[in-house]
Design goal:
17 helices, mainly alpha, about 375 residues, globular, Na+/H+ antiporter like fold, single chain
């Protein structure tokens, strides 16, 4: 889903402006008076095309952002409908799922620039702790829960695979809502996404090898194709076609939400009976995976004496997975295991719900006194 970032405080209104925040009715827009309000209203980099008059940007962008921020509702609604009317979603299958994820990852890439890699050097300790926590806590939780719940092999492999995936890009939105460190969130998502090219195949082969023979090289190639290449393509578009990127960026988060909802609903619709038969055990396993990830990520950061804002950021980054990637890798790397993508589809709903509730709580709760990093 969307990888929105904050780019600093809003731009102040130009001094000496005689029309405040409004232009006379019917007067042409200069664009200057509307920019501060737009900066306040939007998560960073959510910019409408320059061709639109600034007076009309705010309502349209707010509607797009509202629809995108309701991503848990769309995923849950589509997944629920897939249980009742599978045919509504099972048409979205095969190569369409792979292309859907590619579009999601390109959407993430266009919000990033190569300068973001330089920013990692400014906070290396926090980024390193977050990425290491993600690729230790979640995979071990996934393996432990699969064994503890005695999931059947196909579901166990699927749970372990999604636990070995990188941070989900929706974590950036959740951190924004929670008033956490969004810049750090984006850097951790960026680093974990590229680290996943190596770590996801390696960890999956190690932890899921007891259930099925894992072709580590094939999994590596698949991860490279659906993660690194689309993200790099998005970053290149951002660098060399900035006008095109500004045009598509406002709708990119909503497009990503639509595709992730279709991916999840398609997988659930294709495995309706299994989901119903294993509902309690499967839902419990996925819920525990993400709840444990949020909790252990937070307390690991506290134990390392990071400040409260960073602890919250790391908690969200650890607890939220790129479930769409997990679903696609399960389909392409384990074609003989039809149920392997199901945990990823359910994961998309659960981490969105838990993350959104946690963000709302933290937004309202009084933060603890910060410690020194």
């Amino acid at each position: 889903m969307s990888a929105w970032t904050l780019q600093g405080p809003p731009e102040p209104a130009p001094s000496g402006s005689d029309n405040g925040d409004r232009n006379p009715p019917g007067a042409p827009c200069s664009g200057r008076s509307a920019l501060p309000a737009i900066r306040h209203a939007l998560p960073a980099r959510a910019v409408l095309p320059f061709a639109l008059c600034p007076q009309h940007r705010i309502p349209v962008t707010r509607y797009l952002n509202l629809l995108a921020n309701l991503f848990p509702l769309w995923v849950i609604t589509c997944s629920g409908l897939a249980l009742i009317h599978p045919a509504w979603f099972t048409w979205f299958t095969g190569p369409m799922i792979v292309w859907g994820l590619a579009i999601i990852m390109i959407g993430m890439g266009i919000t990033l620039s190569f300068d973001d890699f330089r920013r990692v050097a400014r906070m290396p300790r926090q980024v390193a702790i977050g990425v290491i926590a993600h690729f230790t806590i979640m995979p071990m939780l996934g393996w432990s829960i699969a064994h503890g719940f005695e999931l059947e092999p196909q579901l166990a492999v699927g749970l372990i695979l999604v636990a070995c995936c990188p941070c989900g890009t929706a974590s950036n939105v959740v951190n924004y809502i929670a008033r956490s460190d969004v810049a750090l969130s984006v850097l951790m998502t960026l680093c974990s996404t590229f680290a996943a090219v190596i770590m996801t195949p390696l960890l999956t082969k190690w932890l899921a090898g007891a259930y099925v023979a894992v072709d580590g090289w094939s999994l590596f190639v698949n991860t490279l194709q659906v993660v690194a290449i689309p993200v790099l393509l998005g970053m290149l578009l951002n660098r060399y076609t900035p006008r095109l990127v500004r045009t598509v960026l406002p709708v990119a988060p909503l497009v990503s939400v639509i595709f992730i909802a279709l991916i999840c609903a398609s997988i659930i619709g294709a495995n309706v009976q299994t989901v119903k038969d294993a509902a309690l055990r499967l839902l419990g396993a996925v819920a525990l995976l993400h709840t444990g990830g949020f909790a252990l990520g937070y307390w690991m950061a506290r134990a390392l004496r990071l400040n409260e804002t960073v602890c919250r950021t790391i908690s969200v980054e650890v607890g939220m997975q790129n479930s769409g990637l997990g679903a696609v890798l399960a389909r392409t790397s384990f074609p003989q295991m039809a149920l392997a993508p199901v945990p990823s589809a359910i994961s998309a709903s659960f981490h969105s719900i838990i993350g959104s509730l946690l963000a709302a709580w933290w937004r309202l709760a009084k933060p603890r006194p910060d410690r020194v990093d």
